[in-house]
Amino acid sequence: MQLVYSAYRARGVIGSHARLRIWCREAWGFESLRAHIRYFKALPGLFYNQNLHTMKKTFFFLLTGLVIVTNIYAQESSVSPVKLIKAEKIYTPQIGDLGISVDILTPVMTYVGNMFNNNTNNTFPSVFSSPSYNGDISISGKYFIYEDFALRASFSVDNSNITSSKYVRNDVAYIENTASIAQVTDECTQSSKNMYMSLGAEIRRGYSRLQGFFGAQLIGGYECQNTSYSYGNDITANNNMPTQGYSSTPTYNIGNNSRLLETNVSGGKDFLIGLGGFVGVEYFILPKMAIGGEVALSVLLVYGGQQSEKSERFNNVDGLLEQNTRLFSEGTNSTTLNTHNFGNSFYVAFYF
Fold this sequence. Notes:
By secondary structure, the protein is mostly beta strands. The chain folds into two domains: 2-78; 98-351, no CATH class. 14% of the residues lie in helices and 44% in strands. It is built from four helices and eleven strands. The protein has helices at 2-7, 50-78, 105-114, 171-176; strands at residues 98-103, 139-146, 149-169, 183-207, 210-230, 259-286, 289-304, 307-315, 320-329, 333-338, 346-351. The chain has an eight-stranded antiparallel barrel.
């Protein structure tokens, strides 16, 4: 304690440090001056100093920052984490969607079926085929006004021309030289033109990936089969009945020396209109992609066109080559109730 007092001379009270005036030339007054030293050298920092003040300020700022960081962390911890919601896959068609479907019954029956009978082409049962019973592939389109209501149209076309040929003796060369082996070609062309169209509407029911549908449709179609012949040996005055490769005697064999040029007797030209209903089901194997099947019941009015034959012969009376066209039939009209499909029977469908 003595060390403290001798080292730290603080200001005292009046008269506490007074001495005789002889110790100093000039009087210092009654009040003692402040201490000669500001700090206690033996124990630095014991009393107030600048370094201690700076440390307090630093500690204050650190404490404030710690409180702020703690509050921010607490707020972040109180907020529940955001869960990512996986987008739901839409499998079925929606309002405004377009759809297209292609019949796959033909390749299934023709190719897959032939795997079991080697070389025989499978024919279609009439319940699945079009009116010509040839299993035409149909393309169908749909437009969805509502999710459960759609307009639809189907189109099927099958146009073909099959030409076969045969070599026969060249009559001109043979007449000149019986040893001649020259040949000419006869040809037979079979043409078929079939076109069908349907327009209708359907209503859908069902949930998830499985949907059923039903509806009605208007039907129209055109069918025409024709066979024509061309010959390598011409009919002349010296050769009224030339050699030919096809037995093409017309029904009306005028003069008994006519040969057939063209006929549509076997098929003719048919126009059909009708009204039908249908029912089917689709299963969506992928979003907007489905496998479906459909059956129909239709009433059809078939208007048969005229059937005729065209032939040629040499008219010995006139000495001219003439062509004759004979009407074979005015055509046959019929009404049928059947399950012919004018759209798709077994198909794959896409919606977008």
